[in-house]
Design goal:
Blueprint: H1 11-24, E1 28-33, E2 38-41, H2 43-49, H3 53-56, H4 71-84, E3 86-94, E4 100-111, E5 117-126, H5 128-142, H6 152-169, E6 172-181, H7 183-190, H8 192-207, E7 215-220, E8 223-231, H9 236-247, E9 252-253, E10 259-260, E11 263-271, H10 278-294, E12 300-302, H11 306-326, E13 330-339, E14 345-356, E15 360-362, H12 368-374, H13 376-397, E16 404-408, H14 411-415, H15 419-430, E17 437-442, H16 444-447, H17 450-462, E18 466-472, H18 479-482, E19 489-492, H19 494-498, H20 504-519, E20 523-526, H21 532-540, E21 545-546, E22 555-556, H22 557-566, E23 581-585, H23 589-598, E24 605-609, H24 612-621, E25 626-630, H25 638-648, E26 653-658, H26 663-671, E27 677-680, H27 685-699
Parallel strand pairs: 11-12, 14-16, 16-17, 17-18, 18-19, 19-20, 20-21, 23-24, 23-25, 25-26, 26-27
Antiparallel strand pairs: 1-2, 1-5, 3-4, 4-5, 6-8, 6-11, 7-8, 9-10, 13-14, 13-21, 13-22, 14-15
Helix pairs in contact: 7-8, 12-13, 13-15, 21-24, 24-25
This protein binds ligand C2E and magnesium ion (MG) (2 copies).
Length: 713
């Protein structure tokens, strides 16, 4: 302030100017005498501390003490003031209302005219507001507002840090990208708020999987990233990926009461072999997760350097493909499609293989993308159509019944000009009836320009061939267009079939597609059927045809002819509808045996399973009307099992046997309608028999449920 009183102004003016400054600055100013009696404060002091001038004059600044600093703090302050006449630092003080705040305080000793210290002047900036804003800003810049997880910026910084440490310590680290399959469907069907709730719930589950030092972050939408530090074991990322997938498997109950099923794909990149920078590892894990999704989702993939090698060999591949056409290195394999009602072979899908010299049989997904890129696919695809027609002719001449063959058509082939002409010529050349040829189109090639697609499909239909919509459920076709596509058949993608028996989410999609197809008067085929249970479930739910390894892998034409000649078929087990069938699930074999004894003379067909998964498999193969499950079982609890059964087989009557310790889960299951009744262990044989008899009557619609007796025996 001394400068202000310099030659420019008279001492009085200088004083007035000083006073005006004091009154207008936002920092608190406090003046005391050497005995620390307050002589003056400015308006900002009042604003910050809450004390009016009249309340503090003559008092000591101690009234502001927060109690957060020890004696040493004040001793150091005084030592500095006495020695140099100056102190500056951050200090916690207490406002009149009790609130503690931090301020940056500058204290100066001011000398009188004789040159002796006479006053102390303190100037203080309130930091609490500043800190709050800074904190908020830091948070906004570094964290995702929805889940509170670090965002990409912070993730990259932390990852870089991890890599530096890993390099110093010669350790490995891994990046896992977790991508929720089908999240878009949940978002679209339940709304964005539910989608947000789900992401938060997923975040909670993922958090519990991590060690303290690992980082979890959300990149965007439904993508999460995990950074694993200091890997001890090569398999650690893989084990974690599996655990994550398993932990997301149990349904999520959203605040609105909706249940959501989530499945996740995971992509993994490992430091240092897949990259040494944060960027490289993130890109690697990202392409790996895409691959996992392409393979049908719900799996994990390592990045591995294969990818780079692939990029380098792509040119060589294109060259080789060109030669392959000339040298006739392509061949068609045939996979039977089975009619689920008759159990007989209804047709075949022709699947391309490349007998590449020195490489064995190359599957189509390894070369079709390249062929699609350079345009060769049009010639290859035309060859496939001609070859399929030729084969139909050969089979007919060999005396086999006319067999319908489906050929896959690529996007480029579909959009390019010559497809109709290729078909017309091939049919004519081999004398094949158009209705025996089917073309498989994928959803993805129809959604971009649906108007255009409808026109092209209509033109194909005019030739008399049939059309099938392949891989249904993996794209996002709009229902509005779906009804306008002139198709004859839908194929449920194998990613849904895969878990159809155990995952209610997948089962719901599959049964919805079946219902939708039938409402549109289309046939429906399930692809990738690998087990008897899957086939059973699809049969129970009215699917028309199945295709998959369960019946047969794709085989060479001659072997396919052999299947036809032998009349290989799928045994059609018709469970007699009248019989009363009961499924009992318990992990303790003696309990299972005891229950079977209790129910021995009741005349039911009884199936038993030792756990939820086995129970679901059994149900797919053998329908049961009443299900009795133990609650406490490893892997899947009884209520979880019955909740799945509720979605998969809604008409069943479900009951649980439980000890008192598991009551909470049981009550919740009752409230959700997942179970009809519960019994407490140990049971009373006579009453158990009566209750199960009642359950069958309830199933048969003979009686209404008596909920008041729900507490069982
Ligand atoms: P797609 O048309 O969906 O064919 C079904 C694929 O699932 C085939 O793979 C088949 O071998 C496989 N598959 C069948 N049953 C099972 C099963 O039970 N389990 C499992 N895990 N897989 C099963 P493939 O032969 O490798 O063909 C892959 C894809 O390549 C085909 O998918 C199709 O999109 C394409 N493709 C095949 N042949 C041709 C062709 O001639 N032209 C064009 N443009 N694409 C073709
Ligand atoms: Mg196909
Ligand atoms: Mg398919």
């Amino acid at each position: 302030m001394k400068d202000f009183g310099s030659a420019l102004w008279s001492p009085e003016e200088a004083l007035r100017i000083d006073a005006a400054i004091l009154a207008s600055i936002r920092d608190a100013v406090i003046v005391t005498d050497m005995a620390l009696k307050i002589l003056a404060v400015n308006p900002a002091f009042t604003e910050i501390t809450g004390y009016g001038e009249d309340e503090v004059l003559g008092k000591s600044p101690r009234i502001l003490r927060s109690g957060r600093h020890g004696r040493e703090f004040y001793q150091a302050m005084w030592a500095s003031l006495l020695e140099s006449g100056h102190w500056q630092g951050e200090i916690w003080n207490r406002r009149k209302n009790g609130e503690i705040y931090s301020e940056r305080l500058t204290l100066n000793a001011v000398r009188n005219e004789q040159g002796n210290p006479a006053y102390y002047v303190g100037v203080a900036t309130d930091l609490s507001q500043l800190k709050l804003n800074e904190e908020r800003l830091r948070h906004l810049v570094h964290y995702d507002p929805l889940t509170g997880l670090p965002n990409r910026l912070l993730l990259e910084a932390r990852l870089q840090h991890t890599l530096e440490r890993a390099s110093r310590e010669e350790n490995r680290a891994a990046v896992l990208v977790v991508d929720l399959d089908q999240f878009k469907i949940i978002n679209d069907s339940l709304g964005h708020a539910a989608g947000d709730d789900l992401l938060v719930a997923v975040t909670h589950r993922l958090r519990t999987m991590l060690r303290e030092e690992d980082t979890l972050s959300r990149l965007a939408g439904d993508q999460f990233v995990l950074v694993l530090e200091a890997l001890h074991d090569y398999q650690e990322p893989e084990i974690l990926a599996r655990r994550i997938q398993a932990s997301l498997e149990a349904p999520f109950i959203l605040p609105g009461g909706d249940k959501a099923y989530v499945r996740a794909s995971v992509g993994i990149s490992v430091y240092p072999q897949d990259g040494v920078t944060a960027q490289a590892l993130l890109i690697g894990a990202d392409s790996a997760v895409h691959r996992a999704k392409e393979r049908g989702g719900k799996q994990f993939c390592y990045y591995t350097s294969e990818f780079n090698v692939q990029a380098r060999t792509i040119l060589a591949l294109e060259d080789a493909l060109r030669r392959a056409l000339e040298q006739e290195e392509f061949v068609l394999y045939y996979q039977p499609k089975i009619d689920l009602r008759s159990g007989r072979i209804a047709g075949a899908e022709a699947l391309l293989r490349w007998q590449r010299p020195g490489c064995g049989l190359v599957p189509p997904l390894e070369f079709i993308p390249a062929a699609e890129k350079n345009g060769l696919i049009e010639s290859i695809g035309a060859w496939a159509i001609r070859e399929a027609c030729r084969q139909m002719r050969v089979w007919r001449e060999a005396g086999l019944a006319d067999i319908k063959v489906a050929v896959n058509v690529s996007a480029r082939q579909f959009r390019g000009g010559g497809l109709e002409e290729v078909i017309v010529k091939a049919l004519a050349r081999y004398g094949v009836e158009p209705r025996h040829l089917m073309l498989e189109l994928t959803e993805s090639m129809l959604v971009d320009e649906p108007e255009d697609a409808v026109a092209r499909m209509t033109a194909l239909k005019r030739l008399g061939v049939r059309l099938s919509l392949d891989d249904f459920g993996t794209g996002y076709s709009s229902l509005a267009y779906l009804s306008r596509f002139p198709i004859d058949q839908m194929k449920i993608d194998r990613s849904f079939v895969n878990d159809i028996v155990t995952d209610p989410g997948a089962a719901t999609i599959a049964t919805s597609v079946i219902a939708l197809a039938h409402r549109m008067r289309l046939g429906v085929v399930a692809e990738g059927v690998e087990t008897e249970a899957q086939a059973g479930y699809l049969r129970q739910n009215g699917c028309d045809e199945i295709q998959g390894y369960f019946f047969s892998k794709p085989v060479p034409a001659e072997e396919f002819a052999e299947l036809l000649r032998q009349g290989k078929n799928l045994p059609v087990l018709e469970a007699s509808p009248q019989s009363r069938t009961l499924l009992i699930v318990d992990d303790e074999l003696p309990v299972l045996a005891a229950l079977q004894r209790v129910l021995a003379d009741e005349g039911y067909g009884v199936f038993t399973a030792a756990g939820g998964r086995e129970g679901l498999e059994l149900l797919a193969k053998n329908p049961a009307q009443v299900i009795l499950s133990d609650q406490r079982m490893p892997g899947m609890s009884g209520t979880e099992f019955l909740s799945r059964v509720k979605v998969l087989y809604p008409e069943t009557v479900r009951m649980v046997l439980s000890g008192y310790a598991e009551m909470e889960a049981v009550v919740q299951a009752v409230n959700e309608g997942a179970i009809y009744k519960f019994f407490s262990k140990p049971w009373d044989a006579q009453q158990l028999r009566a209750q199960i008899r009642e359950a069958f009557l309830y199933y048969e619609g003979v009686i209404k449920p008596r909920r008041e007796s729900a507490s069982g025996l």
